[in-house]
Specification:
Blueprint lengths: L4 H13 L5 E5 L8 H10 L26 H6 L5 E6 L8 E2 L14 E5 L10 H11 E12 L12 H10 L4 E10 L9 E4 L3 H6 L10 E10 L20 H4 L4
């Protein structure tokens, strides 16, 4: 798995919106794909002074072999003293926790994260609901998660997640804060081009269809969601698509 420069900038902007503190959990060992100097420049570009000290280098992920890349923990250490833990299905890249997210987590893993990054794992899985439920259970009250998943099939994902899917899942489970975006880039620039983020905030669009479908057909489109767990958040409710649900009240409340 990897966190691109564009997504790294988005994480930094989320940190500016509300500081990322406490315990960070990354689903999938992450390759950052850039050097410590590039990371510091990126942090400064967002108006944050990088924290002093040596940073951890990536010596375990396949994408970093033979390259001078900062590690996932090293990147976060530039702007927060939060502890970074990684979870993966195998230990081949040195994850701290080994767990198959197709399987429910044990009680010992509940409430272990203040900030959780899923990051294009669900589009490689056949059972996204169990993984999403696990993610909610692993969040502490008041914790946030960010998820980024393919919304179109051009990049050959296992499954695709249109914004409606993500909005409805988090809305029906009563998340305290829910922000939804699409990230768009040209298909030819999947691994190196700039990403463009568009906010989706009109409830009417969740019923009639988000306008993201108007982008160029060769665009790679990803759904990007930021969700904060509140006192009334549940993890076991499953949405029904708009045209079949008895009413929209629970979904509409996510915009209040």
């Amino acid at each position: 798995m990897g966190i691109s420069p564009s997504i790294s900038r988005a994480i930094l902007q989320e940190h500016k919106h509300k500081p990322i503190e406490g315990d960070i959990l990354l689903i999938g060992k992450q390759s950052m794909g850039f050097t410590p100097d590039a990371a510091r420049e990126m942090v400064r570009a967002e108006g944050i002074e990088p924290r002093a000290g040596e940073v951890d280098m990536d010596t375990t992920t396949r994408a970093a072999m033979g390259k001078n890349y900062i590690s996932d923990a090293g990147f976060f250490s530039l702007f927060t003293d939060a502890k970074v833990t990684t979870l993966d299905v195998t230990d081949y890249e040195g994850a701290d926790i080994i767990h198959d997210m197709h399987q429910p987590i044990p009680e010992s893993m509940e409430g272990i994260a203040d900030f959780l990054w899923i990051g294009s794992c669900l589009d490689n899985m056949c059972d996204p609901i169990t993984a999403l439920q696990n993610s909610i259970r692993m969040l502490k009250p008041g914790g946030r998660l960010i998820d980024l998943e393919m919304a179109v099939p051009e990049a050959l994902p296992y499954l695709v997640y249109p914004p409606e899917y993500m909005f409805d899942f988090f809305a029906i489970n009563n998340f305290a804060d829910l922000r939804l975006y699409v990230a768009v880039l040209d298909a030819a620039q999947l691994h190196g081009g700039p990403w463009h983020f568009y906010s989706l905030t009109d409830f009417k669009a969740t019923v009639e269809g988000f306008p993201y479908r108007k982008f160029h057909p060769r665009s790679i489109i990803l759904t990007y969601v930021v969700a904060e767990k509140g006192p009334e958040t549940t993890w076991d409710r499953k949405p029904v698509q708009g045209q079949y649900r008895p009413n929209h009240d629970a979904y509409r409340a996510a915009y209040d």
